[in-house]
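Morning!

This is the sequence you dropped in the shared folder:
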Amino acid sequence: MKSFAQQTPYELGNKNQTATYDEAIAFYQKLAKSSAQAKLLTYGSTDFGKPLHLLVLSKDKIFDPAEIRKSNRRILLINNGIHPGEPEGIDASMMLARDLLKDNLLPDNVVICIIPVYNIDGSFNRGNSSRANQNGPEAFGFRGNSKNYDLNRDFIKTDSKNSAAFQLIFNTWQPEIFVDTHTSNGADYQYTMTLIPTQKDKLNTILAGYLTQTMVPSLYTEMQQKGFELIPYINSIEETPEAGITGFLETPRYSTGYAALHNTIGFMPETHMLKPYDKRVESTYLLLKSYIGIVKRDAKLIGENKRKADEAVSKQKDFPLTWKLNEKVWDTITFKGFTAKHKPSAVSGADRLYYDRNEPYTKEIKYWNKFEPATVVQKPLAYVIPKAWEKVITLLKLNGVKVQQLTADTQLTVDSYYITDYKTASRPFEGHYLHNSVELSTKQQQLQYYAGDYLVYVNQAQNRYIVETLEPQATDSFFTWNFFDSILDQKEHYSAYVFEDTATSLLEQDPALRKLLEEEKAKNPALSKSPAAQLDFVYKYSKYYENTHLRYPIARLQHDIKINLK
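The structure's back. Tokens below.
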């Protein structure tokens, strides 16, 4: 048991130092060798070529997640170092794991899983200047991974191997509670720790009730007793918090937004960048201990809530795809800040903001945290996915979605979406030019599908993941992230001088088409003035125009029919 006495680099130094990746893994390896209640596992790979490690702490020495679920114990997953320049969780988790083993404090009804360092790539890109606004530690990792991806934007698009490995861990262990440790940017104030819970309005209502009425109040009470008052993450509506703050809408690209798709309650604790590093580590350590205590206390209820939520989502019919903040509804919360002032800038001479720590204050501020659905879709019976879209199928399977394949070529009557309009960002974001403001039309069509094509029935606990990735209007859908951009290109065209004669014949043979053209010209002056546009109009209403142009490749099956599947 000698390794129980081992200290972390943070403790051995001046408490302004954080462990390197190699130091963290070596620490956990020694810990696992010293106790039968700890096991260090590896999953997949990362863009850096190293696997993701997972330390599992289990009091009864069972390390099979299926067996753990059968024994009706909860699983708490802690993720560290997604942004390696925000390393408090790395150091706090090392001490926490050691102390739980050393002091025989492992709960008998909770298994604790810890990812030591998620962004391994960024942790090796170590320096002391990339976090310009941060007070320590002396050296730390970089936000981007080795492909320069921000991994906390990669939970749907999965451009990194890190993300695929994380999703393997998440869906293998299926935690009820998930914590992703961070450091904040932004205003100055008196709190060391701020907290982003899963946005309550977009979480399943059963889980949201427990989260808001029981778990969050318990965390606030416990942390106040431990000397670290909590406050919601400071997302100011104006330059300083006095004018009020809003809740954070974590869409599925973020870790906790991704967790919500699987009916897992997620938390993103954000320590304040300007507080001393030792206080940030201490508050993170105490917060993680609080999570363990609450999950232990409420283990039976948390498990029952998750079961009910999974069952409810499997039967749910309507799914919100986008959200908007209700600006007419707010709460009033007590906020402890520092007086914001302005003085001439030594750089520009213009007035600049600063916070006067000699003038602390306590006042009531507004907190807007009610989000409402902006776009809602009714689920189909199933989605039909041609086998060509391999990455889509791979990600569905990775996320525990049950998929079935056609065993023979089959014609199916389906509803097909056509992309009638969309906007695309003018600058790249995380390697993509994101689509937004998607508009659709729906056509019922009889389409040919082939043996090996996939059906995904929307009767699963993973329904939210299914719908919010496959419906193109969703904020973080696969369409949003450019998975299907090839369908936006027209593949066949025409030579105008040849098609002029064909179009003339079409208009002569089809009076209805002639009438439609004239009506459109009357409504649209630009069309009436453009011979080329009129010719193209006729082409697009003719049999010569490809019916796959702008047709979203994933169709919606609405009616149950006999289909041979495997």
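Headline: The longest strand covers residues 351-368.

More detail when I'm at my desk.
O.
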